[in-house]
Amino acid sequence: MKIKIEDIKKLREMTSAGVSDCRMALEESGGDFKEAVKLLRQKGLEKADRKSEREVKAGIVFAYVHHTGRLGALAAVACETDFVAKTDDFQKLGRELAMQAAATKPANVEELLEQEYIRDPGVKVADLIKETIGKLGENIRVTDFRVVEV
Questions:
Q1: CB 109 within 8 Å of CB 142
Q2: 100 and 73 share a domain?
Q3: Are 141 and 125 in contact, with CB atoms under 8 Å apart?
Q4: Which domain holds residue 68?
Q5: What is the pLDDT of residue 1?
Q6: Count of domains forming the chain
Q7: CA–CA separation, 128 vs 113, rounded Å?
């Protein structure tokens, strides 16, 4: 099956995956976008597993304050390089993790990682992190978080 360049671009915009990965996923799925997204997600999770032992030396502390001002959270998210810490995908992940911590108030990092993601209950927080690892190509870890409430 011949894959159109427009379809590759569309899938790339949807997933932020590489051009060749998008082409292969579309070829394997027979042009089915939903199946191609699943294939790319699986490939990203596999990449994340291979990178999980790498040392994380950079990162950022993210903050979330609820609109009432009575609840807030800080999340320390680490990665391998400052370059990745400045990317939009990493920034978005950090903000989402701080909001997740504020919304669910987990007891520890392990509990946070096992929770269902508040924006998509079909996805665990750990899988959300692994998807970002797959996109960015670096190991990412939540090293700490704190929830403060008035």
A1: yes
A2: yes
A3: no
A4: 58-149
A5: 64
A6: 2
A7: 9
